[in-house]
Hints:
By secondary structure, this protein is α+β, with helices and mostly antiparallel strands. About 30% of the residues lie in helices and about 35% in strands.
Amino acid sequence: MKATVKWTDGAMFVGESGSGHAVVMDGSPDLGGRNLGPRPMEMLLIGTGGCSTYDVMAMLRKSRQQVVDCRVEIDADRADAVPAVFTRIHLHFVVSGIGLKESHVKRAVELSAEKYCSASIMLGAAGVEMSHSFEILEYQAG
């Protein structure tokens, strides 16, 4: 896997993935940025959430659950000192669907956390306190 990050101006960078997709990252105005994109550490959180949500959805589809919507709400703390590493990350999944089985959702979240999500497992191995929770909402049409 490869990627490139190129400085463009002030505190702005453009990252390009090996698959050719680009994303703008920018710093806050007090650090020379123009607030035109997420901060690099925010990208790390977004990537972790994306990695885990991908796993959860793949497992729920495989178990034939009728998912209508799935999101992960991420809450994190960082150290007060430099380096301002993440010290705690909590991923809360909100899964909406028709007749979803709690056991399937619970198992999908657990397997992502413990076995499949490379990002969250890597952060946990680095000392970040990782936690996961979920809630199920019954889909209401209309």
